[in-house]
Amino acid sequence: MSEETGGLTVGVDLGGTKIAAGTVDPGGEIVSRVRVPTPHDPDRIAEAIAEAVQRVREGWDDVRAVGVGAAGYVDADRSTVRFAPNLGWHDKAIRDIVQEATGLPVVVENDANAAAWGEFVHGAGAGHEDMLMITAGTGLGGGIISRGRLFRGRFGMAGEIGHYRAVPDGLPCPCGQHGCMEQYASGAAHTRRAREMAAADPGRAAAVLVLGDGTPAGLQGQHVTEAAQGGDPFSLDVFARSGRWLGQALADVASILDPSVLVIGGGLGDTGELIRRPAEFAYRRALGGGEHRIYAQIRAATLGQDAGLVGAANLARLHELLWSPAAVL
Length: 329
Ligand SMILES: [Zn+2]
Prior knowledge:
This protein is of the alpha/beta class and 329 residues long. It has helices at 45-57, 94-102, 111-122, 182-185, 187-200, 206-209, 221-229, 233-257, 266-269, 273-287, 307-323, and strands at residues 8-14, 18-24, 30-37, 63-70, 73-74, 81-84, 89-92, 106-110, 131-136, 140-146, 149-150, 261-265, 297-300. Zinc ion binds next to loops.
């Protein structure tokens, strides 16, 4: 990894419902933070980001750059969000807008890439050079670190792990295809699976149903986690099935990229061992190779909700280093 500058940078995690911003020190500690709702009007979002940046840097005079992790396709020069369905954005030149408003250099990155970078530098991937992160939340995203660098692909679209076809003629996906892995291994798929299983056998699901409103449709991911932590066989079975899909996804990407560590993030990753254990079991079975193969470590992410923010701040730090005259060899 590159040498780092001192000083502080601001990381921003831009999602469909909230903007989280934080001032981050070189060790990855968040020294100040703010969280505001994402404006409904797409034209106000960049302004809201700039305002959040100005708020978190207040009182800190050594802030040098800003990194924005955005839920969407970010172009190859990391300035423009090409398409962000959750934000209602097309071709938004977010870097220029935030740069102008704050007077700081800005780098924009896809949110899953930013989260992967955060885990790589300060979280579960620390100490590894080749890491793959799968973020299993509402969707199924990912980030690839190869030889200590974020692998973005030629057009900045690498790491879209959720949208390869895992099941021919499978479930429809909002991306327009059928059978995408996202429909089976995401956090949302896990919750949907729990509801379907509870609807099919409410008696067996009784211990988890009482944690919600009593109906399968009212079941939330946190209910399944809580019941599984208490040893509820139904909820553990839901985790086993979701883990089987996630482990298959890990094996699929590992067979292509051969990382030394695979990190599970997102809401499902936050459940820790509950998902990690069945996913690792399925990963090993799906990958094959027996005793002759070196298996990657499977870890749960450690930075939780902060991974994207911390990663974006660190990418801004490296970006700022590139722009600093002292760093030009
Ligand atoms: Zn898809």
